[in-house]
Amino acid sequence: MKIVKLSFLLLIVVLILCTCDNSSSGPGNTNPKEKWDIEIDDGAGNGSFTLELLPDSTITIYGSWEYNYYERNMVTCNFSDGIAVIDGSDFYCYTEGSAHDHTYNENSDFHLELGGILFNGAGYGVSVMQYFAPGWEDYIEGTWTATLVNGEGITMTEGE
User: Fold this and answer.
1) More exposed terminus of the chain, fewer Cβ within 10 Å: N or C?
2) How many whole angstroms from its chain centre is CA 65?
């Protein structure tokens, strides 16, 4: 009887090891992706972000943009490993990144939150950004619009 139980247990372990794919929990080439172009504060900034749906149903967000503060300070912001939540057409994300002010040649870490609507290849909403370097604006609120430029399978389209 011990041999039967041990054989059964060994069979289950072998099946689990053979059917599990360790690479399935992270970003990959086969995961659905959507690339969005974004305009910030009526043209003061622009860039893009990419949404990627992972096999565990988590949605990651990464991207970059440039923003011209007060028409004198060009700031480039890059972010990765953010988390997005999509519920119907409602969209929310939280991410962190690093920014570079080209005028003063300074860097700052930041937190970014985007909230709004993504539907049928178009989006709009509000943004909240917090910089952490001394001398940078602490808290900035703004608006954004977005257009889907590539991909599918994450946000809603008409008829869904």
Assistant:
1) N
2) 13
Question: How far, in Å, CA of 61 to CA of 68, rounded?
Answer: 23
Please say whether the dihedral angle defined by the alpha carbons of residues 67, 73, 78 and 84, taken in this order, is positive or negative.
negative
Contact 126, 109 (CB under 8 A): no
**What is the reported pTM?**
0.80
All domains of the chain in start order, with CATH: 32-151 (2.40.160)
Residue 33 CA to residue 104 CA, distance in Å, equals: 35
46: closest CA among 127, 139, 160?
A: 127
| Mean pLDDT, rounded, for 120-135 | 96
**C-alpha atoms less than 13 angstroms from C-alpha of 120 in its C-beta half-sphere:** 3
d(CA 17, CA 22): 10
Report pLDDT digits (tens) over 61-99.
Answer: 999 999 998 778 899 999 999 999 999 999 999 999 999
Q: Is residue 151 within a helix (H) or strand (E), and if so which, with residue range?
A: strand 139-151
